[in-house]
Amino acid sequence: MDKVEARSILEGILDELKTRAREELLGLIGNPICIEKKGQSGATYQIEYEALWDAEPGGDLRGHGRHRRHPLPQRLQAPDRRFAGFL
């Protein structure tokens, strides 16, 4: 496993989450998605991602993803859909 490649794939998925409608992200709360992605090297990576409330329901959303043991930085989305930063 190439940790750099795995992290790059995960970051791409989390970046894509920023473009989704808030309503779609709300559907990911408590419903993590597990997928397999092939990297440029040909290696296959199992990836899990989901949305979480940052502090309280109705507030900012956190996009969270991981590849097995490698958690990624989390991105926040405010209720008005603006990108609220990284954790």
Kindly describe this structure.
The protein has 87 residues and is an alpha+beta fold. The protein has one domain (3-86). Helices cover 23% and strands 37% of the residues. The protein is built from two helices and six strands; from the N terminus they run ααββββββ. The chain has helices at 3-17, 22-26; strands at residues 33-38, 44-53, 61-67, 70-71, 75-77, 83-86. Strands 1, 2, 3, 4, 5 and 6 form a six-stranded antiparallel sheet that branches. The longest helix is centred in the N-terminal third of the chain and has 15 residues, at 3-17.
Provide the descriptors you would attach to this structure in a database record:
elongated, six-stranded antiparallel beta sheet, 87 residues, 6 strands, alpha+beta
Radius of gyration: 13 Å
| First-to-last CA distance | 25 Å
Largest sheet composition: 6 strands, antiparallel
Order of helices and strands: HHEEEEEE
The total tally of domains equals: 1
How would you summarize this macromolecular structure in one to three sentences?
The protein is α+β, with helices and mostly antiparallel strands.
Task: Give the arrangement of secondary structure elements.
Elements: H1 3-17, H2 22-26, E1 33-38, E2 44-53, E3 61-67, E4 70-71, E5 75-77, E6 83-86
Antiparallel strand pairs: 1-2, 2-3, 3-4, 3-5, 5-6
